[in-house]
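haha ok so turns out i had the wrong file open the whole time. this is the CORRECT one, sorry everyone. sequence first:
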Amino acid sequence: VAICKPLHYETLLGSRACAKMAAAAWGSGFLNAVLHTANTFSLPLCQGNAVDQFFCEIPQILKLSCSDSYLREVGLLVVSLSVALGCFVFIVLSYLQIFRAVLRVPSEQGRHKAFSTCLPHLAVVSMFASTAMVAYLKPPSISSPSLDLMVTVLYSVI
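then structure:
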């Protein structure tokens, strides 16, 4: 809608649809944060409370725990992956619709303008998703403090 009919964006999409999408994003993010926070505060820490990062990431806190947190970690991973998969599917479907709309633009110059707007955004979304996957899904066997710090900084900056 924003590409093909930019002046009619508000009338075609509507404020109610925008509010529903924002509420879904905020609600799922809040639920994910509450679950992670509740899990983190319920962990007993037996190796002190100094995290070897510049901010507290969940994998770093799990390293400090002296309890067997495998079931908790799997449960949170399932919830987080469900939310992330839903977001990812929504983003992919949105980009498919955008690319279909751009390819229907009759002028070459119009398609070029639309792609020059979409591609940087797609690059940033891809970098964000890839750094998040590396930060949270890499096996502990390839973990090192310098790599963890670099990935965490890159993930937080992006």
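Residues 70-103 form the longest helix (34 residues).
again sry for the mixup
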